[in-house]
Design brief:
This protein is of the alpha+beta class. The chain is built from one helix and four strands, in the order αββββ.
């Protein structure tokens, strides 16, 4: 009788471990889904600013906010960042 009880206990422990693993997998999947949604929102909430350089060529910059930039503003590009010149 004791042997059977131990076997049932081991099965219960294995079942619990399996449930915990499944729960962890689901939590990780949910976390990845949240990160994917956040990345998509960030992409949807970004702006592409096109700048005509002094030599006539065009460059585009993706930014989360265009700040106080308006069409026709002169800008300075430093380290890939746009700033309005006065």
């Amino acid at each position: 009788m004791l042997k059977l009880f131990v076997a049932k206990s081991q099965l219960a422990v294995l079942g619990l471990a399996q449930l915990l693993v499944e729960l962890l997998v689901q939590l990780l999947a949910a976390r990845l889904d949240q990160e994917t949604v956040a990345q998509r929102q960030q992409l949807l909430e970004s702006y592409r600013v096109s700048v005509q350089l002094d030599n006539g060529s065009m460059r585009s910059y993706d930014t989360s906010s265009y700040g106080e930039l308006r069409i026709g503003d002169r800008v300075r590009i430093e380290n890939g960042q746009l700033s309005r010149t006065m």
